[in-house]
Design goal:
This protein is α/β, with parallel strands linked by helices and 459 residues long. It has 20 helices and 14 strands. InterPro entries: AAA+_ATPase (IPR003593), AAA_lid_NorR (IPR058031), CheY-like_superfamily (IPR011006), Homeodomain-like_sf (IPR009057), HTH_Fis (IPR002197), P-loop_NTPase (IPR027417), Sig_transdc_resp-reg_receiver (IPR001789), Sigma_54_int (IPR002078). Keywords: Activator, ATP-binding, Cytoplasm, DNA-binding, Nitrogen fixation, Nucleotide-binding, Phosphoprotein, Repressor, Transcription, Transcription regulation, Two-component regulatory system.
Length: 459
């Protein structure tokens, strides 16, 4: 059983919030002001706090600032009836677990309480420090197992490798794995993106130049081939390389020599791993890529399938990225959502999604709601899924749904408004307001109960 401190200058709301906390199986404590709350925190152990924003004396944001100084790990949720961009941003910047707008439904408040307490449990075992796992080639599906076996077979050789696959599939990760698991691991790994460097600079980037070779050459430059001496040179997106440079790359591969601009040929000891998202055979047929270079690179081909074709790897990858980004875990619905997504951006997109939730999700558990920004899956809906929405505006549809649910709850509870509110997961005053808005019968009698909470409880 945990202790939750509720800080609000409205006694009725404090009681209502405390009722929800008690229903969750925890002990509510109450403070009518920020000053009283800070005194209680100094003297008593508290596991979480629900904090009103607007109060006489110290407001919620100032209380939160002081709490962060004294108890930086205490989960705090801020409540306000007057949410604005400024106070929302500031509350989250100060480390609030959540920022809710009044009135708050029972289910939503219970969710927040569970989340704050789970945050304590999730971080207690790690001492507040998330475990960090090293980068690596992750894959359990058959296609990736085959890639891993191929890497093991070729790692110690000097044979040229060509890695193909869509953008974002992890071609550089494979290249690094080849380097790290081979006998060149202690030497440099140098990566050059052939699509990102202008063609007029690429020759110098790869082969280097001598001082005075051209205007602006104020010093000697080694170039990537010599920088990777004894190790591995990774030529990413080689399919975008200029035709004139392709001939020089071919010569470097065949003769193991490079000629700096303005200099003499030099021997190099380097293993070349190339990668491209393009179909090089098609580029050869179109005259955009040298056929002899293609065959020189295509000694050992490795193809990386897109993430949508290796769904067994989605969760291991996501969990590894979460471990690197923070001490968080996926719940079952979030995991299913990730597996269902088609991942047009492949592993890179998955990593970006994980980094996003690692920053924006306060608690240790990532839910399906936290990744709603992914949009709907491209897969067709399963049988028995939700029916098509009604052909009317949203306000009317919501009003009909709420009216039907309130009437059903009142019927089930034999007209007891307190129990109906509990069944609906909302506070009694909110139930009364909705009954009045929708003209639900017997409202006059029920309003009388609001002014007398004891009578309402006995209704």
């Amino acid at each position: 059983m945990a202790t939750v401190l509720i800080v609000d200058d409205d006694a009725a709301l404090r009681d209502a919030l405390g009722e929800v906390v008690a229903d969750c199986g925890h002990t509510p404590r109450f403070a009518p002001s920020g000053e009283v709350a800070l005194t209680m925190l100094a003297n008593d152990a508290v596991d979480a706090m629900i904090l009103d924003l607007r109060m006489p004396g110290l407001d919620g944001l100032e209380v939160l600032r002081r709490v962060r100084t004294r108890s930086p790990s205490l989960p705090v949720t801020v409540l306000t009836a007057h949410a604005s961009a400024a106070n929302t941003i500031e509350a989250m910047r100060l480390g609030a677990f959540d920022h809710l707008t009044k009135p708050v439904g029972r289910a939503e408040l219970a969710r927040v309480v569970r989340g704050m307490l789970a945050l304590n449990e999730g971080w207690a075992g790690s001492g507040g420090k998330p475990p960090v796992q090293p980068e690596g080639l992750i894959g359990v599906c058959e296609a990736m197992r085959a890639v891993q076996k191929t890497i093991g077979l070729l790692a110690d050789s000097d044979t040229t490798v060509l890695i193909t696959g869509e953008t974002g599939t992890g071609k550089e990760v494979v290249a690094r794995a080849i380097h790290d698991h081979g006998n060149r691991a202690a030497a440099p790994f140098v990566a050059v993106n052939c699509a990102a460097i202008p063609s007029e600079l690429m020759e110098s980037e790869l082969f280097g130049h001598v001082k005075g070779a051209f205007t602006g050459a104020t010093a000697d430059r080694m170039g990537a081939f010599r920088q990777a001496a004894g190790g591995t040179l990774f030529l990413d997106e080689i399919g975008d390389m200029d035709m004139a440079l392709q001939a020089k790359i071919l010569r470097a591969l065949q003769e193991r020599t490079v000629t700096p601009i303005g200099g003499k040929p030099l021997s190099v000891d380097v293993r070349v791993v190339a990668a491209t998202h393009r179909d090089l055979r098609q580029r050869v047929r179109e005259g955009g890529f040298r056929e002899d270079l293609f065959y020189r690179l295509h000694v050992i081909p490795i193809h990386l399938p897109p993430l949508r074709e290796r769904r067994a790897d989605i969760l291991p990858l996501a969990e590894a990225f979460l471990a690197q980004a923070g001490n968080k875990a996926l719940d079952a619905d979030a995991a299913a959502r990730l597996v269902a997504h088609n991942w047009p951006g492949n592993v890179r997109e998955l990593r970006n999604v994980v980094e996003r939730v690692a920053v924006l999700v306060r608690g240790p558990i990532v839910t399906a709601a936290d990744i709603d920004f992914l949009g709907r899956s491209d897969h067709p809906p399963r049988a028995g899924g939700p029916a098509d929405p009604p052909d009317e505006d949203l306000t009317s549809a919501v009003a009909k749904l709420e009216t039907a649910m309130i009437r059903r709850a009142l019927d089930r509870c034999a007209g007891n408004r307190t129990e109906a509110a509990r069944l609906l997961g909302i506070h009694r005053p909110l139930l009364y307001a909705k009954m009045k808005r929708y003209g639900i019968e017997a409202f006059e009698e029920q309003t009388a109960s609001v002014s007398n909470p004891d009578a309402a409880k006995g209704a």
